[in-house]
Amino acid sequence: MSNEAFGQTTNVSVSKVNATDSGNCVKVDSTTLENCQNTPVDLNPITTGVVAKIPVVLAELTLQVNVSSYIKLPESAIEVKDIKKKLKIVQCRLLQNTNVLFIKGFIRKNIDYSTRDCSNYDGVCGDLRHCTVDVPFECTTAVDFNGTEPAELVFNTSYQFEYFNRDDLPGDFPEKEKLLSGDLSEFNQITTEYLNELPYCEVINTRIVEFDEFLNRRPIYEPAPFEEREFKKIEENMVIFITLKVLQKRQVQIGSV
Question: CA 165 to CA 176: how far, in whole Å?
């Protein structure tokens, strides 16, 4: 997966419809009720001990992912106004019979930036644009099972069995002798398949610390304030902290045994 990705959303202009033009507008009538009455219903719980199949916490951990990336904007920008970020996990897989967790995902970044349409020595005017990009990352980490150890894997089995067979021998053998062996005219097998519960993850919170630097800022070769520069490429370094739980559905005794 490439670390350079960019996209541009087409601006859509929306004209305001005259409120008196009922053919092009919807009409909504709504009434807010001050109070809604309710009546409690008696619960019917299980009062004896039960065995429940519920998610059990295997581990809870905070992992750190360090990411360096380059973003190339589709046009020259004067400055970045804001960057909104959301972390997306696409893989969180515990490799069973080990304690290795594989993590894969991306940071969805929406970059708001300003462009230059015209300028003079007094200032710069332009548009506010935005670009949404996905910055991928992946890593592995060793898990300390500070909750419950994962359930032991149960492996599929396959057993072949055969029956004793007593058969006649050809004429070269004494007449009273017989061929004593397994029956080669059949194939018998018992196969058992076990479906294990796969551990899975839940993200609790994320924190992203980033440093973005604009590369190759060049002067504006037209009248413009002396400190203004244009750029298209951004180098970013991010430290991502992800707190998550690793869980597995297990049968748990609740109540008296």
Answer: 16
| Residue ranges, the chain, pLDDT below 70 | 1-23, 257
For 207, 215, 254, the CA distances from 248, given in Å and listed in that order, are 25, 46, 17
Q: What dihedral do alpha carbons 194, 195, 196, 200 form, nearest 10°?
A: 170
| Cα distance between residue 94 and residue 101, in whole Å | 4
pTM of the full structure? 0.73
pLDDT value of position 9? 37
Extract the runs of DSSP E, i.e. beta strands, from 39-177: 50-77, 79-95, 100-114, 118-120, 123-125, 128-142, 157-161, 164-168
User: What is the rounded CA–CA span in Å between residue 166 and residue 69?
Assistant: 75
Please state the domain extents for the chain.
Answer: 50-148+198-251, 156-193
CA distance 216 to 226: 16
